[in-house]
Amino acid sequence: MNKSTSLKVRLPVFVLVLEVVIIALYAVFVTYDENADAKFQNNETNPMENSVYRDYPYFADVQVMIFIGFGCLLAFFRFYGFSGMVFNFLTATFSIQWAIVIQGFFQFNYGGKIHLGVINLLYAEFACAVVLISYGAVLGKTSPVQLLVMALLEIPIFSVTEWAVLKYIRINDAGGSILIHLFACYFGLGVTFVLYRPSLNKGHAKEITSYSSDILSVMGTLFLWVFWPSFNSALTIKGDDQHRAILHTFIGLSSSTITAFALSAVFNKRGKLTMADIQNVTLAGGVTVGASVDMMISPVAAYALGVMGCTACFFGYKYLTPFMAQRLRIQDQCGIHNLHGLTGLISSIAGICAIILATEETYGPSMYQIFSHRAPPVDDPKFLELQKLIPELKPGLGRTGQEQALYQVAAIFSTIAAASIGGLLTGFVMKLSFMASPSDENCFDDELFFDMPADFSSAEFTTPMNHEDKEQMSSENTKV
C-alpha cells in the first residue's frame, strides 16, 4: 500500500472528528418535532393524522434513489464497481447526517432548536442528492476522504444558497431544477476544474465498462426512473399540484426514454444501441419538467420537454463533454453537465414561460397558492376576497408574471455563480496533499482502496485505450 493513499490513519481520524462534531451538534440543537414528541400526544390525538403517514412514502422512495439508484448507476466501470457503489454509500450516509443539522438551521429552527421529523430527513436527502450529482464529475479520480470533505463543504454552501434564493429572490422551483440540478452540476464542474488531470484526456487503461458492470448500472437507471415522480412531487402542495407533478414527471421520463433509444441507434456507426445512452439519456425528462412540474403546463408540454431534454443531453454527451475536457480543462467524468446542467437550463426556461403565461382563467384562485409570490399583499382588498375562497392562502408580494420571471432569471445566475465559486474553493481544499488522492495511473481501480477478491485482476490493462477502441467496446465514460 502506497503511504500517500493509505486510509489507515486518514479515514478513521477524519470520521472520528466528524462523529464527535455531529454528536455535539445533535446533543445541543436537535430535538423532536411535535409529530415525534410523546408529550404532544394525548387522548384527543389521532395517530393516523401523524405527518409520518404523509411524508414517509416520499422519504422511502428518495432513499431508494439515493442508495440503490445512484449507487448502481455509478458502478459502471469494470474495475471500479466497489468504489462506485461503496463510496456513494459512505458519502450519502454522511451527507444526510450533516444535512439534518445544516438544513435544519435554515428550515426547521425554532428558538434555536432543530425540530426533527421525517420531513427533515426528506430535505436532508435532497441536499444529499446535490452532493451525489457533483460526485459524478470526479468519479474514479478521488479518495473517500476527498469525497467526505466535498460533502462537508458542499452542503453548507448549498444550504446558504438555497436559503438566500428562497428568502430574498423568492422563486418557484418545485422539482429543484435550479436549486438542486443546476447547483450540483456547476459545483461539480468547479471541483473537477481544479482537480484537472491532463493525462486523462488521452484515455486510461481502466476507464472501461464490462457486460456485468453495464447491467448493474442500468439497474440503477431503472430505480431512478421508477422513483423520480416521488422526487419531483415530494415538496409540492398536496392535492392537485402533487397529482400534476407525478403525471408530468412520468410523461417527461417516458418521452425522453423512447427518444433516447431512437437517437442512440441512428447516431451509432453500426446502427446499434449504446448502453451509456440507455443508462443516462433516458433520465433527462425527469429534470426538464422539474421547474414547471406542478404547473398547468399541459401533458403535451411535459412530453415535449422530455424530448427536448433528451436531445440536448444526448448531443451534450456526444460533442460537448469531449470539448470541455480538451478545451476548458473540465473533465466531467459522468457527464453531469448534460443530464443536470443542460436539462436544468431547459427546465428553468420552461418554468419561466409557464409563469409568464399563467392566468386566473387557467388556474382559478389557486394560482396564488402555486405562485405564492404573485398573491396580493395583506393590505390589498383582493387578498381578503381570495381568502374567502381559499382560507389557508397567505399574503404574497403582488408580483406580476413578468416580474416573477425576472426573479427566476436572477435565481439561475445567482445559483450558478454561488455553485461555481463554491466548487472551485472546495476543489482547492480537496487538492491538499494529505487527502489521499490517487495518482493518474491508479484512477478507476478498486485495488487502491479495497481488499479485492481473488478473481479480481486489472493488471492486464496497462496502456491507455484510444477513442476508437473505447467506442468499439461500448465503453463511453460519461454516465449519470
UniProtKB/TrEMBL annotation:
Residues 23-434 form the Ammonium transporter AmtB-like domain. It is a multi-pass membrane protein. Functions as an ammonia transporter. May play a role in the elimination of ammonia in the gill. PANTHER family: AMMONIUM TRANSPORTER, AMMONIUM TRANSPORTER AMTB-LIKE DOMAIN-CONTAINING PROTEIN. It is found in: Cell membrane. Belongs to the ammonium transporter (TC 2.A.49) family. Rh subfamily. The chain crosses the membrane at residues 12-32, 56-77, 89-108, 114-135, 147-166, 178-196, 208-228, 248-268, 280-297, 303-320, 341-359, 405-429. InterPro entries: Ammonium/urea_transptr, NH4_transpt_AmtB-like_dom, RhesusRHD. One of its GO terms (molecular function) is ammonium channel activity. Residues 460-480 are annotated as: Disordered. This is Rhesus blood group family type. Pfam families: Ammonium_transp. Residues 466-480 have a biased composition (Basic and acidic residues). GO terms for cellular component: plasma membrane. One of its GO terms (biological process) is ammonium homeostasis. The keyword Disulfide bond does not apply. Keywords: Ammonia transport, Cell membrane, Glycoprotein, Membrane, Transmembrane, Transmembrane helix, Transport.
